[in-house]
Design goal:
The complex is a heterodimer of chains A (about 325) and B (about 170). The termini of chain A are close together. Chain A is of the alpha/beta class. In chain A, about 45% of the residues lie in helices and about 20% in strands. Chain B folds into 2 domains: about 80 residues, 2-Layer Sandwich (Alpha-Beta Plaits), CATH 3.30.70.260; about 80 residues, 2-Layer Sandwich (Alpha-Beta Plaits). Chain B has 5 helices and 8 strands, in the order βαββαββαββαβα. In chain B, a hairpin with a 7-residue loop joins strand 6 and strand 7. The two termini of chain B are about 30 Å apart. The chains are: A alpha/beta (about 325), B alpha+beta (about 170). At the A-B interface, helix 12, strand 9 and strand 10 of A face strand 5, strand 7, strand 8 and helix 5 of B. Strand 10 of chain A pairs parallel with strand 8 of chain B. Bound molecules: NADP nicotinamide-adenine-dinucleotide phosphate (NAP). NADP nicotinamide-adenine-dinucleotide phosphate (NAP) binds next to helix 1 of chain A.
Chain lengths: ~325, ~170
């Protein structure tokens, strides 16, 4: 049995999902030889620290009732620098202007020789090169499956399962909010504004939906793929982006009459990173509805491989984080 | 009908005009002329491909007049549009002169708008259109789409193309 000491920095939807999944899978993890101890949980207000292992159930209910995880007045950065542990689970908010606190946390983690598993797109969309270099020179492992497509295992599919293949292109739906809105506009013959309001009511869209509906979120995910899979040195600013705000119900009907649906498609291949609404033939593997995400990977040996899955959600995203953790520490 | 014809001309001045005269005399409408100056035929002639629209009953007359004037007619075929694409436009399509949008594709000679459905909800709201474009080949289709894209950018229209895999 190997004891792995972890910190969770950021205790919102995803961070709490990770805590729940670790509780639920504790026995399974022990069966495969991993004794995972969370030694610190940090949110924006403070931290809960126990080098013998934080009580995750208590931390979850404290967060639920008091709105904060702990009373220790210590930041994520200080936890990463001063408390001995193996892996930093970084789930703070995405910041695509500077990379935000997530970028500082990840760089500090590597500086102290810790591994990083994250769902936070901002640092990777802004500074992938620097992060990969820092991880390499520290001998740390850096895993970020959860940043692209939530539970849909796109990065590990390409780097592990399809190893040896040359990747020609990746194309797909990388934002569940846009997919939901377009699917519902079609079903209800309703306007973009109406279906955005519905999505907000159901919690599928943020109060400020800009980041999703203007294609920025999908663009960040493409940048991560471009850098991690295609070895590019791209940032969000290199993406040619068109969102869904101008799509009319009439255009969806005209498309349907001719056997198409309209989807917000992200596409990355040599010299091209683009997000734009596209016509997808009915029945095509990319024509998935609801909040689903989907990606088609075009390869030289395996041909085209398409996967679909839930692109967001607390437990779904935690699943991707868990699988990254297991793949690092399972012997 | 639209005809594509491969002819062979002597490498002396004035030959091309000689070849094109019968087409206009018989009310044909010339679409394109591709001159392969660098590829002489074994007999030292220059191959030229002409595409033109003409009434079917006049085609034979064009061919005999060409041959009378010493132009070799190597191949005659009806031009077919082999490649098709569907696109959607969204914006102020009518206000920005839809006829001009279509004409700019049709004027290429290698592509044309063969189908158009327009949906206008209310006068001040953006309208949507479904366009089908045919072209003589894959390259021509790509060119027609880039042309349409630049027209759309100029007129502030959103253009929605099919995913790549559909094109190949
Ligand atoms: N939700 C999804 O389905 C999903 C899917 C894929 C990827 N992601 C990404 O995963 C990350 C987390 O998403 P989320 O939905 O869990 O966001 P969230 O619910 O807003 O949670 C963010 C957490 O980070 C904490 N935080 C903010 N600033 C901090 C700081 N300086 N130091 C420490 N903690 C700080 C917040 O503290 P308070 O609790 O005190 O406010 C909160 O606990 C984001 O980068 C997001 O883009 C999310």
């Amino acid at each position: 049995m190997k004891t792995i000491r972890a910190s969770i920095i950021g205790f919102g939807a995803v961070g709490q999902g990770v805590a729940k999944v670790l509780l639920q899978k504790a026995d399974y993890l022990k069966d495969i030889g991993i004794d995972l101890k969370v030694i610190a949980i940090v949110d924006s207000q403070g931290a809960e620290i126990d080098t013998e292992g934080v009580d995750l159930s208590a931390a979850l209910s404290r967060k639920r009732t008091d709105g904060r995880v702990g009373l220790e007045n210590i930041t994520g950065l200080e936890v990463i620098r001063t408390i001995d542990h193996d892996v930093v689970i970084e789930t703070t908010p995405t910041n695509i202007e500077t990379g935000g606190v997530g970028l500082e946390n990840m760089l500090a983690a590597f500086e102290h020789g810790r591994d990083v598993v994250t769902s936070n797109k901002g640092p990777l969309a802004m500074k992938y090169r620097d992060l990969a270099k820092a991880a390499r020179s520290a001998g740390s492992t850096f895993r970020f499956e959860a940043t692209v497509g939530g539970a849909m295992p796109i990065i590990n599919l390409i780097t592990d399962v399809l190893a040896g293949n040359k990747i020609i292109s990746v194309e797909g739906i990388l934002n569940g909010t846009c997919n939901y809105i377009l699917t519902r506009m079609m079903e209800e013959r309703a306007s973009y504004e109406q279906m955005l309001a519905e999505a907000q009511e159901l919690g599928f869209a943020e109060t400020d939906p800009t980041y999703d509906v203007e294609g920025i979120d999908a663009a960040c995910k493409l940048v991560i793929l471009a850098n991690a899979i295609f070895g590019m040195d791209a940032t969000y600013k290199d993406v040619d982006v068109t969102g869904i705000t101008k799509i009319t119900p009439e255009s969806l009907i005209l498309a349907e009459d001719s056997g198409y649906v309209i989807k917000l498609i992200g596409e990355v291949k040599k010299d091209l990173i683009r997000v734009a609404p596209k016509l997808v033939p009915n029945g095509h593997p990319l024509a998935v509805g609801g909040t689903l995400n989907v990606a088609s990977v075009q390869t030289d040996l395996a041909g085209t491989v398409t996967i679909t899955g839930r692109g967001a959600g607390s437990i779904e995203t935690a699943s991707a984080i868990l699988s990254d953790i297991i793949s690092i520490y399972k012997k | 009908m639209r005809v594509s014809m491969d002819i062979e001309l002597k490498d002396v001045p004035g030959q091309l005009l000689l070849a094109l005269n019968p087409i206009s005399e018989l009310k044909g409408n010339l679409i394109s002329v591709v001159h392969h100056h660098e590829n002489h035929t074994p007999r030292g002639l220059i191959p030229v491909q002409v595409v033109f629209d003409i009434k079917q009953e006049n085609l034979d007359a064009v061919i005999s007049r060409l041959e009378e004037s010493g132009v070799e007619v190597a191949r005659v075929g009806e031009e077919r549009f082999l490649e098709h694409i569907a696109v959607i436009l969204i914006g102020h399509i009518v206000h920005t002169d839809i006829q001009d949008t279509i004409d700019r594709i049709d004027r290429t000679g290698y592509a044309e708008v063969v189908d158009l459905s327009l949906s206008m909800p209310r006068i001040e709201n953006p309208s949507s259109a479904y366009l089908k474009i045919d072209a003589v080949g894959k390259k021509e289709l790509k060119d027609a789409i880039s042309l349409l894209k630049s027209v759309a950018a100029e007129k502030d229209l959103l253009i929605i193309e099919p995913i790549e895999t559909e094109l190949t």
